[in-house]
């Protein structure tokens, strides 16, 4: 996956998280929020949001420059000079 694809994937995951949390809050503020079914729905939505956060992909910081520097200089560009 290239950087743009990862960013698009992460944006979709973030949209899922926000929708789940928004729905959970909407259910929590209802007049009948004390019903067991609503409490279970809120817990499930919060778990979905937490789990979705773990699905996000890390986007490497400028990987092409690191690779080319290692091949041309023979040393890690992040190492101390």
Description:
This protein is mainly alpha-helical and 81 residues long. Helices cover 70% and strands 0% of the residues. The chain has three helices and no strands. The protein has helices at 3-28, 36-55, 63-73. Helix 1 packs antiparallel against helix 2. The longest helix is centred in the N-terminal third of the chain and has 26 residues, at 3-28. The mean pLDDT is 81.
List keywords for this structure.
single chain; 81 residues; mainly alpha; 3 helices
Q: Give the low-pLDDT segments.
A: none
Distance between the termini: 32 Å
Q: Order of helices and strands, N to C? A: HHH
Biggest sheet features = none
Helix content: over 70%
**Shape, principal axes of CA atoms:** elongated
Q: Report the portion of residues in β strands.
A: under 5%
Q: Helices and strands: which structural class?
A: mainly alpha
Please report the total strand number as a whole number.
0
Helices, by number, come to: 3
- The whole-angstrom Rg is 21 Å
What would the average pLDDT be, to the nearest integer? Answer: 81
